[in-house]
Design brief:
Chain lengths: 161, 136
């Protein structure tokens, strides 16, 4: 039996891919990692992401999108991953600034990523919109996971799109 | 179990309507405590309407959305109509993009319109038009 070592799902289609948009491409100008182990951590992470979106120069609607996506991803790591970390990175792309969220957990991983990204699919107490919804709120979205491997989600939103 | 974490917004009563709100810092335990307190008040006081002000919510994620939908359903089962008022425009945009429609949850632009829908009207101008009550 062969389980996929790693499943990745790329971002939703963008109008025009730019050079340097990749995970490793854009220079990171600042990086802070927060623990996601308790309910209080979820609130603290939201505050930190909000402050980072303001610093990056996002407007109020984009701030709301990014903080909401962060809340979904952090909750996933807390509920399904048994806790993890959320790293906030200020990044600079060719067209402008951006914010990248890296959410890691060492939980059981996601055996069927396509299903997990489907609206309405849930194994927990949410609405089942967490992962797929967070993907729609961000410009770039990558999931590295597999049964027994934990999960890493990398999600970026740019100020100029 | 009976740990009572309040969400910080008191539940006021105006006739047969309960008026309350949610704070931004809603977590799972607070949400459960809030649902329990609100439903107890509906039942004890025979409330027919509930106005929930959400203008302080800076985001609504799928957890908070689920809480609102459950509150609405539970209240309806107890005979009370819930109106959620004051959603911020960026929150509405983000909710739609998340794919959440808040099915079954009645909304109003602001608490005044929500209260009006529940049968309350703005107080009329005092007779004579002046606060000091100048005699005609």
């Amino acid at each position: 039996m062969v389980l996929p070592r790693e499943s990745t799902v790329a971002s939703r289609p963008k109008p025009a891919p730019r050079a340097g948009d990749g995970e490793a491409g854009a220079p990171v100008t600042r990086q802070v990692t927060h623990q996601v182990r308790t309910e209080e951590d979820l609130l603290a992470v939201r505050h930190a992401v909000r402050a980072a979106t303001v610093e990056a120069g996002f407007g109020i609607v984009d701030q709301t999108r990014v903080v909401t996506a962060a809340s979904e991803l952090a909750r996933n790591a807390y509920v399904h991953g048994g806790g993890g970390t959320l790293t906030i990175e200020q990044v600079r792309g060719p067209a402008g600034r951006g914010l990248r969220l890296v959410v890691k957990d060492d939980g059981p991983g996601i055996a069927d990523l396509d299903t997990a990204l489907t609206d309405g699919f849930t194994t927990g107490a949410g609405l089942g919109h967490g992962l797929g919804g967070a993907r729609r709120l961000m410009d770039e979205f990558t999931v590295h996971t597999g049964a027994g491997q934990g999960t890493v989600v990398v999600a970026t939103r740019w100020t100029v799109r | 179990m009976s740990e009572h974490r309040t969400v910080g917004v008191p539940i006021l009563r105006l006739g047969d309507v309960l008026v309350t709100g949610l704070l931004n810092e809603l977590d799972d335990r607070a949400a459960i405590a809030f649902t329990e307190e609100l439903t107890a008040r509906i039942s004890a006081e025979g409330a027919r309407g509930v106005l929930i002000d959400i203008s302080r919510l800076e985001i609504i994620d799928s957890f908070v959305a689920r809480t609102l939908m459950e509150l609405t359903t539970v209240s309806r089962l107890l005979g009370a109509r819930v109106i959620v008022a004051g959603m911020r425009p960026p929150v509405a945009i983000t909710l739609v993009e998340l794919g959440i429609e808040l099915v079954g949850v009645e909304t109003a632009l602001n608490p005044e319109q929500g209260l009006a829908a529940l049968g309350w009207r703005q107080a009329q101008e005092p007779l004579g038009g002046s606060r000091r009550g100048a005699a005609p």
